[in-house]
Design goal:
The chain is α/β, with parallel strands linked by helices. It has ten helices and 13 strands. 38% of the residues lie in helices and 19% in strands. The strands form three sheets. A seven-stranded parallel sheet has the order 3-2-1-4-5-6-11, with helices on both faces. Strand 4, helix 4 and strand 5 form a beta-alpha-beta unit. It binds NADP nicotinamide-adenine-dinucleotide phosphate.
């Protein structure tokens, strides 16, 4: 598969997910990769690693529109992997979108990389949805990527490796999409080569398993039976939720309680098979040892 794009700018490319997306583009080898970081320049191990593999690191003040436009000129694609600060993601990304348009960027990938959430219940994803609507109206090409929970974040939904304890916030048969950070990177790279990803929402998952099935993998890899508790209070709280849900971590618990997982996955449009979830679970177990 080849891409019509050559230069990719990744805003937040040294963050938790951004690093893996940047690394996947550099490993692909067919792109010039630029990474935007906020001024002032600070020592950063991930930035050094990515620079050693060929990325150009650019320090920018996102409030200086002319500088931002200048930094984006010549980029075919802008990928926002900005994180929340003070719960804000819409506001953080707007200057980037405005500048991308002015710099005649061709495609914009917003900082989504999560799960589908109901509108009006989860304030943090609400900001993402509002921004995605702005991207769709911008006139730029776009791809929005849903990947479920990062496998590295399985503790968010109750898998406590250190104490070999699982807290279930939903029925053990409830399924959850999860994807490793490295595979989110690989999926993102390949969307640029797929005609189906132009102006589209792409849904992928490295694994779609029930809570019981994730638990079995943790038990196999740790070689021991885990304590399992069911958190009825959270189950009840989020089932009847009227007030907004306060944090990304709680959003994923609530999503387990409230949502059916999406069924129309796009995995079969990609040329590769994601890594088995056991690879991340093995890493999590090693880290906790
Ligand atoms: N599916 C999941 O399980 C899951 C879990 C966590 C996150 N996510 C999603 O993944 C995406 C990236 O999250 P992340 O955790 O990788 O982000 P992160 O590491 O918290 O932040 C990414 C980068 O954003 C930049 N940044 C932070 N605040 C900023 C601001 N106010 N203005 C401009 N840049 C700012 C920083 O880069 P510099 O300091 O270098 O400028 C930072 O390294 C988000 O959409 C998030 O919701 C999904």
């Amino acid at each position: 598969m080849s891409s019509q794009f050559k230069t990719v700018t990744i805003a937040g490319g040294t963050g938790t997910l951004g690093y893996h997306i940047a690394d996947a583009f550099l490993n692909d080898g067919s792109y010039d990769v630029k990474i935007l970081r906020r001024k002032p320049k600070t020592e950063n191990e991930k930035a050094n690693l990515l620079a050693s593999k060929g990325a150009e690191i650019v320090y920018i003040d996102y409030d200086q529109k002319d500088d931002l436009v200048e930094a984006l000129k010549g980029s075919d694609v802008v990928i926002s992997v900005l994180g929340y600060s003070d719960g804000k993601l819409y506001e953080n990304q707007i200057p980037l979108l405005t500048a991308a348009k002015e710099a005649s960027v061709k495609r914009f990938i917003p900082s989504e990389f999560g799960s589908e959430f109901k509108v009006g219940v989860h304030p943090t994803p609400d900001g993402k949805i509002k921004f995605e609507e702005a991207v769709m109206k911008s006139g730029l090409e776009y791809t929005i990527i849903f990947n479920g929970l990062f496998q590295e974040f399985l503790s968010w939904i109750g898998f406590d490796v250190k104490n070999k304890k699982a807290t279930f916030y939903a029925d053990g048969n409830k399924k959850l999409h999860t994807t490793s950070l490295a595979d989110v990177g690989r999926y993102t790279v390949e969307t640029l080569k797929m005609p189906e990803a132009r102006n589209a929402v792409i849904k992928v998952a490295g694994a779609t398993m029930s809570l019981n099935e994730y638990l079995q993998e943790f038990e196999k890899i740790t070689g021991s039976k885990w304590e399992v508790v069911v958190d009825e209070e959270v189950k009840h709280r989020y089932k009847n939720k009227i007030d907004p849900i306060p944090s990304p971590e709680e959003d994923f618990k609530a999503t387990l309680v409230q949502n059916e997982q999406y069924k129309d996955l796009d995995n079969d449009k990609f040329s590769f098979t994601p890594h088995p979830v056991t690879e991340v679970i093995e890493k999590l177990v090693k880290q906790a040892a």
